[in-house]
From TrEMBL, chain A:
<dbReference type="GO" id="GO:0046872">
    <property type="term" value="F:metal ion binding"/>
</dbReference>
<keyword id="KW-0479">Metal-binding</keyword>
<dbReference type="GO" id="GO:0051539">
    <property type="term" value="F:4 iron, 4 sulfur cluster binding"/>
</dbReference>
<dbReference type="InterPro" id="IPR004017">
    <property type="entry name" value="Cys_rich_dom"/>
</dbReference>
<dbReference type="Pfam" id="PF02754">
    <property type="entry name" value="CCG"/>
</dbReference>
<dbReference type="Pfam" id="PF13183">
    <property type="entry name" value="Fer4_8"/>
</dbReference>
<keyword id="KW-0411">Iron-sulfur</keyword>
<keyword id="KW-0004">4Fe-4S</keyword>
<keyword id="KW-0408">Iron</keyword>
From TrEMBL, chain B:
<dbReference type="InterPro" id="IPR006094">
    <property type="entry name" value="Oxid_FAD_bind_N"/>
</dbReference>
<keyword id="KW-0274">FAD</keyword>
<keyword id="KW-0285">Flavoprotein</keyword>
<dbReference type="Pfam" id="PF02913">
    <property type="entry name" value="FAD-oxidase_C"/>
</dbReference>
<dbReference type="InterPro" id="IPR051914">
    <property type="entry name" value="FAD-linked_OxidoTrans_Type4"/>
</dbReference>
<dbReference type="Pfam" id="PF01565">
    <property type="entry name" value="FAD_binding_4"/>
</dbReference>
<dbReference type="InterPro" id="IPR016166">
    <property type="entry name" value="FAD-bd_PCMH"/>
</dbReference>
<keyword id="KW-0560">Oxidoreductase</keyword>
<dbReference type="InterPro" id="IPR004113">
    <property type="entry name" value="FAD-bd_oxidored_4_C"/>
</dbReference>
Length: 373, 459
């Protein structure tokens, strides 16, 4: 046995209160996708927390390869949070870990490039405009005071899936869409830049009046962690509980009620505890089918699919197997990352199943028309 | 550890199943026991019995300790590498080899979790009875090696009542098979029972043949609230004295109720001083009758409120919430120290009173929950700050007195969590010098080189 004197780091990486919460009971092990994959404690929540402690206490050298590997192998899906009886806020710990681990040059190049792009306003807005993003409105200060709700467009979503924002607006016509909005900072917070993550979230809070409604579960959870739960609503949550909206119509395929599954957004489910809202909405317009792993990460996990493509693809393969076996017509997403990931997987498989954002499905049912894509 | 030993280990299990760098070893430096931690020299994940044998062979040759490990959920520092060495993780041996309904048995590898086995058995209409709170993670190997109890102990007993036979690798390399598929077999010393609860100090279990029961058709659960834990304890004694032997009698005191409610949000009454969870299973008439009788006894013993959960889902939720008591308590502070004192059933209320008095005398708050029907209490001290050495010392003193009180009432220092490294210093008080000596001779007979989990039971 080697002796580890343990010289604590000059500045603590982690909030000590968060770190001491974990009692190593192991209840979180069965919930963790990366532990299921490797069977190694190091890739489990409990193991990672022990690694964090070793880093904090100086029991491990800051450049230890396992620290680096595990801070990036973790999906950040937070499936370990709702199952933890001790209430360990793993998502916060991971952000603090990556902030330390990926500081400066150690940040993955791809993550850095994405964050640079997302932090800017102009290019995205132009791109979005070309592909038909919802028209932005000029917000008057009276709207701010009236406490109405506004729609956040999402930096990547408005470019990749402009229809989602339009569908949301059609469902909730009263939403204001302020022109000046950029990235909410989730991308930064999850990739080792918590300061920018917070700053951007605050900026979003200033740009968007009233309740911020978003079609992205991941953005909702990040904004809520900075601005407070009361300011932020993910769309399905808003539709089901925060507005007068009632689902209309029915989704039909081949003359029958369509079969629809859902892929949860990890941060929406595990961070904000929103589980029933999207299911209830879908059940109103179609035959809802629960996938066995609906609540488990699809492998998109923010930048994970770009940074760790092999692992991401492995997780996705299992997911697509399940979607295929479920015999559904659609799989609904409530987060743009999941939508992109599912589409990639289904396309690769030449599947008949279509991945569509919940907002679009609701709109299709209401208008009783079907997607072409 | 010698470089050639490392190379030999690596070639036995394959490089993908061998760990040796600092960072790789950190997650295997502790289990669920607070305050105990030591870094091993290597971690190996063998695939089968042969690889386990080969690892033990290398360890003997190089005189390196071997620490068998399942899920590492034990609460007595039984898997901490206090003298370094090789942590032998058995989770890759995770197959259910056979479920034989006609013989009411299962044959499994040690890395299967208790919950997985229970689920598989239930598909055949059978029950895997041992039910530790940690069932979703705890492996069958670890459950046998700690002779774990659980939430059904009163009616169903503990793990040792279900182990029919074992395959185990001795530290000297031989593979033995004890017992077997027979429900009766008296050929030889009962080595199956000796290995059950041996905490990885005598042999490595690589396969187990386990008794199953027909699954009960109905399960019912009720809750009674009391003004304090001793009152709940008196009701428990009265229930058993009335000749009722239910599956479950679990209790929680006020702090535990609050912590659990904070997590599970089931609408438990947080103003009550104690909660008693009672439950039974079997034919529906019998269950209903048992629940009614228990409700009556509770009412007669001044329960503030008694309800029974009609729905299975709610009964399951209540049990699940009870299983979370320990980790939920850790919400209250940085350090959670837990004990496992067990007394004869009629003395539960008395033990509860003594724990309260001891806590008050040392100025520490002790929250208590436990398997009341088994006389098994888990007094738990939550310390706000880890650096508060004064409180930690006072808690330690209080716990020493709690041990003494348990023994004084004809009980034990550990009902189910085991000895490991954590309780070893107190073992001789309980067993006496002659028995300790015999334990050591037994240990030497199995493990002459002393490589298997040294510093624990039998050392
Ligand atoms: C929240 C919580 C609740 C708990 N509730 C209960 C409860 O209700 N009742 C109860 O009795 N316990 C309980 N425990 C304690 C513990 O979970 C059980 O003892 C469990 O059965 C241990 O299983 P494991 O796989 O984690 O074993 P580990 O912790 O990995 O190992 C335990 C011991 O078994 C040995 N071992 C493991 N596998 C083998 C093998 N294949 N061959 C030989 N030796 C082996 C180890 O060396 C060690 O000595 C609880 C623990 C927690 C954290
Ligand atoms: S994170 Fe929570 S569930 Fe996991 S080991 Fe720690 S306390 Fe237990
Ligand atoms: S965030 Fe997800 S991948 Fe990371 S430790 Fe928790 S459950 Fe595992």
């Amino acid at each position: 046995m080697t002796d580890h004197p343990g010289v604590p780091l000059p500045k603590p990486v982690f909030d000590p209160d968060l770190l001491s919460r974990c009692i190593s009971c192991g209840f979180c092990l069965p919930a963790c996708p990366t532990y299921a994959e490797t069977g190694d404690e190091a890739s489990s929540p409990r193991g990672r927390i022990n690694l964090m402690r070793a880093l904090q206490n100086g029991d491990l050298a800051p450049d230890d390869p396992t620290l680096k590997e595990q801070s990036s192998q973790c999906l950040g899906c937070r499936a370990c949070e709702p199952v933890c009886p001790a209430g360990v806020e793993y998502g916060q710990l991971l952000e603090q870990w990556r902030d330390h681990q990926w500081r400066g040059r150690r940040m993955p190049v791809l993550a850095r490039a994405l964050m640079l792009a997302a932090g800017r306003r102009v290019p995205f807005r132009l791109l979005g405009r070309l592909r038909g993003t919802p028209r932005t409105t000029v917000v008057e200060t009276s709207a701010l005071a009236s406490g109405g709700a506004s729609l956040m467009l999402g930096c990547f979503e408005r470019v990749l899936f402009p229809r989602v924002g339009r569908a949301a607006l059609a469902l909730v016509p009263g939403l204001t869409v302020p022109a000046s909005q950029s990235c909410c900072g989730a991308l930064h917070a999850h990739n080792g830049d918590t300061a920018t993550g917070e700053r951007l979230a605050h900026r979003m809070g200033e740009d968007l009046p009233g309740t911020i409604v978003t079609t992205s579960g991941g953005c909702a959870a990040h904004l809520a962690s900075v601005l407070g739960r009361a300011r932020v609503r993910e769309l399905s949550d808003h539709l089901a509980t925060g507005s007068a909206y009632r689902p209309l119509g029915e989704l039909r395929v081949d003359g029958r009620r369509a079969r629809v599954a859902l892929q949860d957004s990890c941060h929406l489910r595990n961070g904000l505890g929103v589980r029933t809202a999207p299911r209830d909405l879908l059940a109103e317009i179609a035959h809802y089918v629960e996938l066995p792993s609906a609540g488990t990460c699809c492998g998109a996990a923010g930048t994970y699919s770009l940074l760790r493509p092999r692992e991401s693809r492995r997780i996705l393969t299992t997911k697509i197997d399940e979607v295929e076996a479920a015999g559904v017509d659609f799989v609904a997403a409530v987060n743009p990352g999941c939508l992109r990931q599912l589409r990639t997987g289904l396309r690769r498989r030449r599947s008949q199943v279509k991945a569509v954002h919940l907002a679009e499905l609701l709109l299709m049912a209401g208008e009783s028309r079907f997607p072409v894509a | 550890m010698h470089a050639t030993a490392r190379a030999a280990l690596r070639s036995v299990v394959g490089p993908g199943h061998f760990r040796e760098t600092d960072g790789e070893l950190v997650p295997y430096s502790r289990d669920a026991t607070p305050l105990f931690q030591a870094r091993p020299d290597a971690v190996v994940f063998p695939a089968d019995t042969a690889e386990v044998g080969a690892v033990l062979d290398i360890a003997t040759r190089y005189a390196v300790p071997v620490i068998p490990r399942g899920a590492g959920s034990n609460l007595c520092a039984a898997t901490v590498a206090s003298r370094g060495g090789i942590v032998l993780v058995l989770t890759r041996l995770n197959r259910i080899l056979e479920i034989a309904p006609a013989e009411l048995l299962a044959r499994v590898q040690p890395g299967v979790t208790s919950a997985t086995l229970a689920e598989a058995a239930s598909r055949d209409g059978l029950l895997w009875a041992p039910d530790p709170g940690s069932r979703t993670v705890a492996t069958v190997g670890g459950t046998i090696a700690t002779n774990a109890g659980g939430l059904r102990g009163l009616k169903y007993g503990v793990t040792r009542d279900y182990v029919l036979g074992l395959e185990a690798v001795l530290p000297t390399g031989e593979v033995i098979r004890t017992g077997g598929r027979l429900h009766k077999d008296v050929a030889g010393y009962d080595l199956t029972r000796l290995l059950t609860g041996s905490e990885g100090t005598l042999a490595v279990i690589t396969e187990a043949t386990l008794a199953l029961r027909p699954a009960p058709t109905t399960t019912g659960t009720g809750i009674a609230y009391f003004s304090d834990l001793a009152a709940a304890g008196r009701a428990v004694t009265a229930i058993i004295a009335a000749g009722i032997l239910p599956a479950t009698l679990e209790f929680l005191d006020r702090s535990c109720i609050r912590a659990v409610e904070d997590f599970a949000r089931l609408g438990l009454r947080t103003d009550a001083g104690a909660l008693l969870l009672f439950g039974d299973d079997g034919e529906s008439d019998a269950v209903a009758h048992a629940l009614e009788r228990m409700s009556d006894v509770c009412t007669a013993h001044h329960a503030l409120d008694v309800t029974t959960a009609a729905e299975v889902a709610q009964a399951e939720a209540l049990l699940a919430a009870r299983r979370c008591a320990l980790p939920a308590l850790s919400r209250l502070g940085e350090l959670t120290i837990l004990e496992d004192a067990t007394v004869p059933r009629p003395r539960i209320a008395e033990m509860v009173d003594r724990i309260d008095a001891i806590g008050a005398r040392h100025g520490v708050t002790i929250a208590t929950f436990g398997h009341a029907g088994d006389g098994n209490l888990h007094p738990t001290c939550v310390v706000k700050s880890q650096d508060d050495t004064d409180t930690v010392t006072r808690a330690e003193r209080a716990f020493a007195e709690i041990f003494a009180a348990a023994i004084d009432l004809g009980g034990t220092i550990t009902g189910e969590h085991g000895v490991g490294a954590a309780k070893l210093p107190y073992l001789s008080t309980q067993l006496g010098a002659d028995q300790i000596d015999l334990l050591r001779r037994l240990k030497t007979a199995f493990d002459p080189a002393g490589i298997l989990n040294p510093g624990k039971l039998g050392s």
